[in-house]
Amino acid sequence: MPEPNASVGSISVQEPRNLRPLRIAIFGFGTVGSSVARILAESKPEGLQLTHVYNRGVSRKRVDWAAGVTWTEDADAVLASPEVDVIVELAGGLDPAGSWVRRALESGKSVVTANKKLIAFHGVELERLAAIRGGHLKYGAAVAGGIPVIPGIEQGLAGDRIERMEGILNGTCNFILSQMEAGADYGMVLSQAQAKGYAEADPTEDVGGFDARAKLAILMRLALRVEVNPEEIIPRAIGDVAAIDFSYAKDLGCTIRQVARAQKTDGQVAATVGPMLVDLRSPLAWSRGTENMVILSGHYGGDVVFSGHGAGGHPTAVAVVSDLLALAHGSRRVELPAARAKVAVEFEVPHYIRFLVDDRPGIVAEITGALARERINIRAIMQKAGYPQHALPFVVTVEPCKSSALQRALESMRSMDCLLEPPLDLQMLE
Amino acid sequence: MPEPNASVGSISVQEPRNLRPLRIAIFGFGTVGSSVARILAESKPEGLQLTHVYNRGVSRKRVDWAAGVTWTEDADAVLASPEVDVIVELAGGLDPAGSWVRRALESGKSVVTANKKLIAFHGVELERLAAIRGGHLKYGAAVAGGIPVIPGIEQGLAGDRIERMEGILNGTCNFILSQMEAGADYGMVLSQAQAKGYAEADPTEDVGGFDARAKLAILMRLALRVEVNPEEIIPRAIGDVAAIDFSYAKDLGCTIRQVARAQKTDGQVAATVGPMLVDLRSPLAWSRGTENMVILSGHYGGDVVFSGHGAGGHPTAVAVVSDLLALAHGSRRVELPAARAKVAVEFEVPHYIRFLVDDRPGIVAEITGALARERINIRAIMQKAGYPQHALPFVVTVEPCKSSALQRALESMRSMDCLLEPPLDLQMLE
Predict the structure, then answer these.
(1) Is the bond preceding B96 in cis, omega lying within 30 degrees of 0?
(2) Among candidate residues B310, B340, B374, the one where a domain is terminated
(3) Do A104 and A28 lie in a common domain?
(4) Is B215 noted as a catalytic residue in this protein?
(5) Are A116 and A214 in contact (CB under 8 A)?
(6) Helix/strand/coil for B155
(7) How far, in Å, CA of A45 to CA of B335, rounded?
(8) DSSP letter, residue A419
């Protein structure tokens, strides 16, 4: 972008802004898209001008408060238009969003997107394309919506060496689990989340951990400076967590949250997503409802915590408009080199294992024997009173061990016909 | 800064970085200065080169692990040197730091500083000078040390309209008050903080609220977009808070923290710094030790919380090095216009008032009468058992009222000879 000199008083001043406003086309006018338009209409930030809205069946999307906007169903025309400087891609998913973004960047336009999947899987390639063609790609809205984690890392923590991160990155899971903590049933609260619009009709992307995984992969690149294939991070669904687990967790001074975590030790990378036991004294336990939270642990600066509203139209739109303002002001990303890496290492952490058994003598001996054969040390065995003998839940917690060793131990228990369902094992965050 | 084109493969790529590294001179080689040098020596971030260290009596500062550095006592020579691109000012205070910064900016150099006082009082003028001469002024380290609040606001929340902020901005006060919460005595814990280096020999700047006030004024400009004279914010010292106040606060579901808060309502600005009652469910109550925390409430995005280590050599140095990297990568500030404003409005919040009396009949009637004359509604009257009648503490909490009305009511109680000391009134954050 040019940096013309403007005259202030009698002295020539370097003026970092474009004199001509950035002309913006929104692709996808759903909740976030209309919030972006709403903020632009109400706040009228200097240097930004909404000129186009593309959506299928755009006539039902048209609003009367967005003046001077061309409403269109012709994506090609907008992408080809020399009258548009920035595409705001809010359609989500890999296709057709990916091809719009690619075409926009190829023609030298800049792109602002909230598309975590696209950035997690193709971010590196798209950033390279942007650099080649002279445009910019910004995606502050892709992770943790209205919480400025991405600008915080890029602009404020670039001087540190971040070694570990834990995040609550999916508002739907946090809503479900924090409601379950308060006594609600999984199925009921999932339906409630769907009714409130927090969860999709097919909730797999959220409750299965795929959404959080994509966000974790993006943060790993920026914070840990490792480029990983998101599919190497195996997510665990939250659906197996039951009311009894919250009860046992409480006895252990914990609650349960869907946590996305990663660490880099001597260049070795570990990463995982799933429901975990979280100490009640950890900030992660304080997050309620659809809140998001990210904790970054720096070699020099120690822990930094960000929290706030990670989803929803307005918070996500704040991130989009902030990215647009950064583009308009000529702010460059502080782009630090990330190295390709495999997710090759396991966390060695304590685990919580909950069994549901048809009780008979010798069960504890068999289970503890199976753990001992993998050299896993038992920390505690807990059995609450008040459950029927033919469907008895009990819990074993174990000292830090590799997930693979624990999986082998659990596998070897499969033949025990007293187990009414596969044991549930959860990492314990300490 | 020039943006030369570099060639990658066969395609010309826009390269936002300078090819020549930024040459850095550190002014002030204390804890933070040596941490900055340490990070540069260990991490060797691309594009940054430490070339000079200025300090009085520099020979006793010299370290053997910082290669290629010129150690000097000649500030003028460094400021005049065409071999230096950026001054990192870590001396603090208005003078001589201010004149170094001014001279550096006048000669077109950039400046990175952790000097909250200088930025609070002269930031606007210095930014203007930087813009005129083509340099940049960055001060991410001036507020909340290693927590990226300033880049978070500038780059990630520029799209919101922030209406309210509350912060724990002084680690020394937070250390003292969180230790008092755990039962320590003010004088003892202040001595301990001085021994640990958390507090200065003269602790007025910290415990009197002046340090937090400067930081609040800086954040108000960036977040609320109002330029205020810091001296219009009247700080309250934490020294009047006693053990008994923590005990009553706990009964009220609260603790006590030094809070810096500001809000803008219809263009009217309120701001204050001092010890306040904080609900135990508020994130502000979770901060322990020297931690800092900032809560920003946006019109669109809701509350965003940042927390972490606000002080100390390494965390502050992370902010300094991050600012240096942003300069090296050509990242521009997203500079939003701030309007001059007076701190003219009072908060209307509930108050906690603690009396210490030589008990006799009629005291409560007199006190409640004085409050009633100012139309202040009483919320609760609390008196704990176990105190002697001649030095009896008791507490009155009142519904939201203006501080000025409460001050008039307290003033009218001055003539009551049963009051052993002036009542302590604290705002209650809700």
Answers:
(1) yes
(2) B310
(3) yes
(4) yes
(5) yes
(6) helix
(7) 12
(8) B
C-beta separation of A291 from A283 below 8 A: no
- Predicted confidence at residue B2, as pLDDT, reads 37
Is A41 at the interface with chain B, CB within 8 A? Answer: no
Copy the structure tokens of residue A245: 């687990």
Q: Looking at the structure, tell me whether residues B103 and B189 fall in a common domain.
A: no
**Between residues 282 and 341 of chain A, which touch chain B (CB distance below 8 Å)?**
283, 286, 298, 300-309, 314-315, 317-326, 329-337
**Residues of A assigned a catalytic role:** 215
- Mean pLDDT (chain B, rounded): 92
Domain boundary among A112, A138, A164: A138
For residues A198 and A127, state if they share a domain: no
Q: Helices in A95-203 by DSSP H: which ranges?
A: 97-106, 116-133, 149-151, 171-181, 186-196
Does the model's pTM come out above 0.90? yes
Are A128 and A207 in the same domain?
no
CATH of residue A119: 3.40.50.720
Domain of A363: which CATH number? Answer: 3.30.70.260
Catalytic residue chosen out of the listed positions B138, B215, B264, B402:
B215
- pLDDT for A13: 37
Report phi then psi at A238, rounded to 5: -90, -5
The total of structural domains in chain A comes to 3
Do residues B301 and B171 share a domain?
yes
Using DSSP's 3-state secondary structure scheme, residue A190 falls into: helix
Contacts of B159 in chain A (CB under 8 A): 39, 43, 45, 317-325
Q: How far is Cα A314 from Cα A38, in angstroms, rounded to an integer?
A: 9
Q: Which of A40, A88, A105, A155 to mutate to test the interface with B (most CBs of B within 10 A)?
A: A155
DSSP code per residue over B90-137: -S-SSTTHHHHHHHHHHTT-EEEE--HHHHHHHHHHHHHHHHHHT--E
Please state the ipTM of this predicted complex.
0.92
Task: Enumerate the H helices of A252-381 as residue ranges.
Answer: 283-286, 313-328, 363-373
Encoding tokens for residue B229? 């004279």
The interface residues of chain A toward chain B in range 390-429, judged by CB-CB distance below 8 A, are: none
A300 and A226 assigned to the same domain: yes
User: Between A228 and B334, where is the model more confident?
Assistant: A228
Q: Give B25-69 pLDDT, tens digit per residue.
A: 999 999 999 999 999 999 999 899 999 999 999 999 999 999 899
Enumerate residues 6+ apart whose C-beta is below 8 A from A430.
A279, A349, A350
Three-state SS string over A305-330 comes to EEEEECCCHHHHHHHHHHHHHHHHCC
Q: A24 and A129 share a domain?
A: yes
**Mean pLDDT on B136-161:** 95
Note down the domain range covering B258.
149-310
Is the CB of residue B157 less than 8 Å away from at least one CB of chain A?
yes
CATH code for the domain in which residue B291 is found: 3.30.360.10
| B249 in A contact zone (CB under 8 Å) | no
Residue-wise pLDDT tens digits, B234-263: 999 999 999 999 999 999 999 999 999 999
Under-70 pLDDT residues of chain A: 1-19
